[in-house]
Amino acid sequence: RTPTSFSKKYEKNFQTLNLKTLDNQEIKLSNLNIPIVIINFWAAWCGVCLEEIPSMVALRKKFSTEEVLILGISSDDENSIAELKRVEKQYGINFPIVPDYSGEIFNLFDISSIPSTIIFHKGKVLEITKEPKDFNSIEFIETIERLLNKRLALTSQT
How many CA atoms lie within 13 Å of 158's alpha carbon, on the beta-carbon side? Predict the structure, then answer.
């Protein structure tokens, strides 16, 4: 889906967001010089959310950490740390998981259903998806490559 009236609010929140990962790493989005940032809202108990994870893991392997950052914002509560770590190991999650125990990040981005994803390009909202997404689809990979000026998509005309 294309950006909505929420875009400006999301872009402002993106600039002020300071996150702490499951591994206690601090991430300040405004300090990052990564062109594509994918924020995926999910929970360990959400089956549909878990179905998305392999495509995010595959996407993470296709692009360097200087090109694409994926953040998994989890709505699980503080009692679910062991479950989050189990899911991380089971699915081979290769991107930061950010627990949102208080629901503050979900509220900042008006997330009422999961999975939901907000994709930013250079701090601007590129896409808002409030349903499951295949992050490894040819169309999505081509979009990322085009935004990164990696290589021309096979479908482009000369």
Answer: 3
